[in-house]
Specification:
Blueprint (H helix, E strand, L loop, with lengths): L10 H10 L3 E4 L6 E4 L3 E4 L11 H9 L3 E4 L3 H10 L11 H12 L3 E9 L16 E12 L2 E9 L8 H16 L3 E5 L3 H4 L4 E4 H12 L21
Parallel strand pairs: 7-8
Antiparallel strand pairs: 1-2, 3-8, 3-9, 4-5, 5-6, 6-7
Helix pairs in contact: 3-4
């Protein structure tokens, strides 16, 4: 039987303490037990000028202005889509306990989402500046944890069957720009994988990651207001 963790409303200090020490939770399956992990090598996406590698497909999407990007518009839907997204390996590390716990983190101001939307075909010509369920379709997004000046990217998704090809990449680019604009010091991506390597992530030993983490979490930084990425000129073009 899966082990029960603390009630979701009590998990916020537990999760923040874990992140501050370089650990993060993962479920063994959609209905499995939750454990906390550290990694011998930590993956980060540097926030320095030119550090973000923008693949051609992302540059094309960005310059077309295809997606409307928002932040914190529908956190619960984003994390649920991330849990339901098929992965290269069967299963998911996001279960209902994690969804509840991170939703409480969101309400406490320590978790955020970035969303990508497409206008609906039957939407009025003059749609509101911010997407609504009646005018736009959610086609991609990501979410993560905010502690001090550190952002821990957790998961992202896209819905190609709804026109959302490259939507998660667009959200990641906007996240990177937003963190830079707000003065964040760290964008942690946890574990390296081929998908993230295309964006310029680097791996550093855990013992070298901890001082960076400590310095970032000790610096107070606010999430709002949102800063949309205005240009691709500052991004590396492979």
């Amino acid at each position: 039987m899966p082990r029960r963790g603390p009630q979701p409303h009590k998990t916020t200090p537990i999760l923040l303490a874990a992140y501050a020490q370089g650990a993060f939770p993962m479920a063994s399956s959609r209905h499995g037990r939750v454990e906390f992990y550290t990694a011998p090598a930590r993956s980060i996406l540097p926030l320095a000028d030119g550090a973000f590698r923008a693949p051609r497909s992302l540059r094309q999407v960005f310059t077309s202005g295809r997606f409307v990007i928002t932040t914190d518009a529908c956190f619960s839907r984003v994390i649920t889509h991330c849990a339901d997204t098929p992965r290269a390996e069967p299963g998911t590390w996001i279960n209902d306990w994690i969804i509840d716990a991170y939703t409480h983190l969101y309400h406490a101001g320590h978790a955020h989402s970035v969303e990508a939307w497409l206008p609906k075909a039957d939407a009025p010509t003059h749609t509101p500046s911010l997407p609504t369920e009646s005018t736009h379709t959610l086609v991609g997004g990501l979410y993560g944890v905010h502690l001090g000046a550190a952002f821990f990217g957790e998961s992202m998704f896209s819905l190609p069957h709804l026109g959302g090809s490259n939507a998660s990449k667009a959200c990641l680019l906007h996240l990177w720009h937003h963190l830079r604009a707000r003065g964040f010091a760290l964008l942690d991506t946890q574990l390296a994988n081929p998908h993230m390597q295309q964006f310029g992530i680097v791996e550093i030993p855990h013992e070298h990651f901890l001082p960076i983490l400590n310095a970032a979490t000790a610096k107070p930084t606010t999430w709002s207001p949102a800063h949309p990425a205005p240009t691709l000129l500052q991004y590396h073009r492979p």
